Amino acid sequence: MKIHVGVSTVMIAMFMSTLPMPSLGQTSQLRSKVDKSEILSQFQKQLFKSLNSKLEEFQQAYEKDYQAEDYVFDAFEAFKKADSAYEPVLQNWITQFPASYAPYVARAEYYCACAMQARGNKRAIEKDQNEYREMERYYSLALLDIDHALKLNVGMDVCYSLKVEIGMALEKEELITDALVGATKYHPYGYRVRMKYVQTLTPRNGGSYEKMEGFIASCAKYAVYNPKIKELSAVIPSDKGSVFFYLGKYDQAVKMYTEALKYSNYHSYYAARGDAYVKLQDYKLAMIEYDRALEQSPNDPEYLRRKTHALSQQNRFIDAQKMKGLSKQADTYDDWPPKKSSGSEHKQGIEHVQKAGDFLRAGQYEQAISEFTEAIRSFPDEYSLYHNRAICYLQLKNDEAALQDFLRAIERNRDDIDAYTKIMFIYANRGAYDDALNSITTAITLKPDNAEAIYLRAKIYERKGMNIEALQDARQACDMGYQRACMEYRIGK
Asked: I need a labelling partner for 47 at 20 to 30 A (CA). Which of 129, 139, 433, 468 fits?
């Protein structure tokens, strides 16, 4: 099912509401930026009374001044981390302060993070997996907390934004629509829920950039009451930047994030551009971007982690340059040349292959990667080494490294059908459905009797909105005996 709500339907519902005028001319007393580390410190020390006061202060500031909206969202996003140590503390917080909305919103953020972790990179074409069901369970828990928080404070836009996020993940249009209408009823000129809604209209969620542009244009008239509405225009280039980043086109990603920053200085855009510079090994510019993000979101644990990682990468790069004289274009995953063939080295290579296989079977993927890398130095033309190392990277959720290795595998063996299928999944998880389609079509060309591959192509066609082609492939897979296609598409035999 495509995730995009009819804009006209939503806008009619919004106009049906009585739109209260904002408090023009009023300015909130809150001027300090959100320090997530401070919030988490109070949380870990279980200073709940002080924490409630701080979080409620951010919400009250927003009630007086739309310009304080980001503060509320940033403050509660401090809890968006799938750390099992959080749950008992959150429960203790709720037990001590059941009449406060703050702990319920915080736990909802935590559950949403757990849901995203459970889902991993799985998208709709794999939604029957156990990971998807676990994701649904966490989102159900989050919705319970969200509804409880809204009973205590119906004007919590953070909650409506989370509902949009959950509706997008679970492909529930009604949940998305209701959340948007609810938010605009109480804060008709709010920005962040609208920003989250625009993200449901991206091409990889079944929408299009034209639909995004249409919704953004429909909101422009509200900018007179809240200038931040203009920043919605940053969402489209930001999304394009994310797509380019995941496709490994980092120069283009930088350009798109730069375009987004023309409309909004939102800290996430600076951090994303920093990530792209890290991939380009331009660490100096990356540090500048992370520092800019930290100016907007002081002591943000995630941005500090990225900056530390970039510093580590920079030091490793400098050391590699000194030791090996490699250029910036050196292969990210094979950052040394292959060994010269000799009898002893050939024997060592075989030993590395055997060790790598043992580690892979034992589920010790990092050790397996190390051994496969050593083996590749001895046998750089053996496609199976790249393929198996890619499998390890997938298990560690490093899709970019996996993609590069699968591509290396098919360069060496054009008949590696499984590699084409895995590449399809990686591209599909990124929303790059054209690339996914090309990959799975190649696999089908190599093995036309592969019913599973034909079924998978049907799912890609479905995500692209090509329903006729999807049904044709599903029927073919069903006729070939692939029961999953018969059941999902309700095809009688």
From this structure: 139
Q: Exposed, middle or buried: residue 404 (CB in 10 Å: 0-12, 13-18, 19+)?
A: buried
Q: Which residue has the higher pLDDT, 117 or 97?
A: 97
For residues 123 and 417, which has the higher predicted lDDT (pLDDT)?
Answer: 417
387 and 291 in one domain?
A: no
Q: Is 73 exposed, middle or buried (0-12, 13-18, 19+ CB in 10 A)?
A: buried
Segment among 39-53, 121-135, 382-396 with least mean pLDDT? 121-135
Query: Nearest-5° angle of CA 366, CA 370, CA 374?
Result: 165
Choosing from 205, 225, 245, the residue where a domain stops is 225
Give the pLDDT of residue 32: 63
Domain final residue pick, 225, 250, 272: 225
Say if CB 388 and CB 356 are below 8 A apart: yes
| Number of residues that this document lists for the chain | 493
The pTM is what?
A: 0.65
- Average pLDDT of the segment spanning 391-402: 88
Task: Please name the amino acid found at residue 479.
Answer: D
User: Which stretches within 280-398 are classed as H helix?
Assistant: 283-296, 301-324, 343-361, 365-378, 383-395
Q: Does one domain contain both 251 and 198?
A: no
The closest of 370, 414, 424 to 393, measured between CA atoms, is 370
Burial-class residue 488 by CB neighbours within 10 Å (0-12, 13-18, 19+): middle
pLDDT score at 464: 83
pLDDT digits (tens, 9 = 90+) for 153-189: 999 999 999 999 999 989 899 999 999 999 999 999 9
pLDDT mean over 39-51: 94
Distance CA 215, CA 196 (A): 12
Please report how many Cα atoms fall inside a 13 Å half-sphere around the Cα of residue 32, on the Cβ side: 11
What's the token pair of residue 51?
């924490």
Q: Give the model's pLDDT for residue 176.
A: 95
Domain that holds residue 92: 7-225
